[in-house]
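Friendly challenge for the regulars: who can give me the structure tokens for this chain first? No prize, just bragging rights.
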Amino acid sequence: MQHQQASRADLPAQPAGGAIDSAPADGACSASAQTAQPEAAPGAGSSVASVGYITKTALIGGIAGCTAKTVVAPLDRVKILFQTHNARYAKFAGTHFGLFKAGAAIYRDYGIRGLFQGHSMQLARIFPYAAVKFMTYEQLKVGLGRRVGDEHIRNFLAGSLCGAISLSVSYPLDMIRVRMAYRTPAAGAPAERVWTVVRSIYCEQAHRLGVLNFFRGYPLSLMGIIPYGGVSFLTHEYLTSLGRGRFAAHAAVPESEQRASGRRRRRRRKTRELRKWVELAAGGVSGMVAQTASYPFELVRRRMQIAGVHSPSERVRAMHVIRGVWDGAGVRGFFVGLTIGYVKVVPMFAVSFYTYERLKVLLDIE
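First reply, four minutes later:
Bragging rights claimed.
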């Protein structure tokens, strides 16, 4: 009896209006699941505010991000070349099957390593980015749940804030990664080392302090991450809640199977598990919606990040880049590479959210 009282005291405070779920995909749950306390073994189901829960969500978030980025790394390389209007591959942009033609040309010139150029820096960047993003989202969702009554506003704000925090942590690494992906050395020449790229960025004369060169386009990125992070988590939460609620008969794992899997684990999960294809579809759609909402910001940011390659001493401003894109192609210019963005983002978000949710099940957290 004393143990049960202590376990209840460890649970996070609940706002008026319902219990707070700690998982990003927690949507509509049954009333019995919300009111009943889980009969867990000591240590099962970490508290949202506990160090163990924070560590686990950060770890599996980083793993999910790295897994997703590895799956789409070749597409990401071509996308950057298209966005930055690389002279060597710009001719493929906007053509039928331009994505595959550009990929084939890269493979012909540089081999398989060419398709993964800059990927080591991508992994170094994405692990802290995704770790901080998922971990802070879990905490922000609970914290905002005590102050924001509307669930959709809460999810959007939590997604936007966690995106801004994770972007700030990883932005210099993204800058290095973009420069490495943009450069196209002569065929057969060795790829540039990370330290060489870092030194060249630092020595540019655009800013008095060399470290500020690593933050080219940062303010615009911060503006873009608000719709990107907010819309992605909002859409994913909404779709998964539909899967657990209105369409549970088709989208959710039957309770008999969930009870059986719960016996194999330490405890039965409160949240209805979704079928694998539903998790993948929800992640893919959320990525497509988020990409559409934030793509113009991303394109201008990429142009600003590679500006130092052409004009190391020039401090390029966002309005200058926007004007150049507008004068060159009008509104369509802000969506160059969006198709390849969809091709990349749909599997990336699908794999990222799916991996994160599966790892949460494996580690027995919600």
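Confidence is low (pLDDT under 50) at residues 1-46. The chain has one domain: 48-362. Your move, everyone else.
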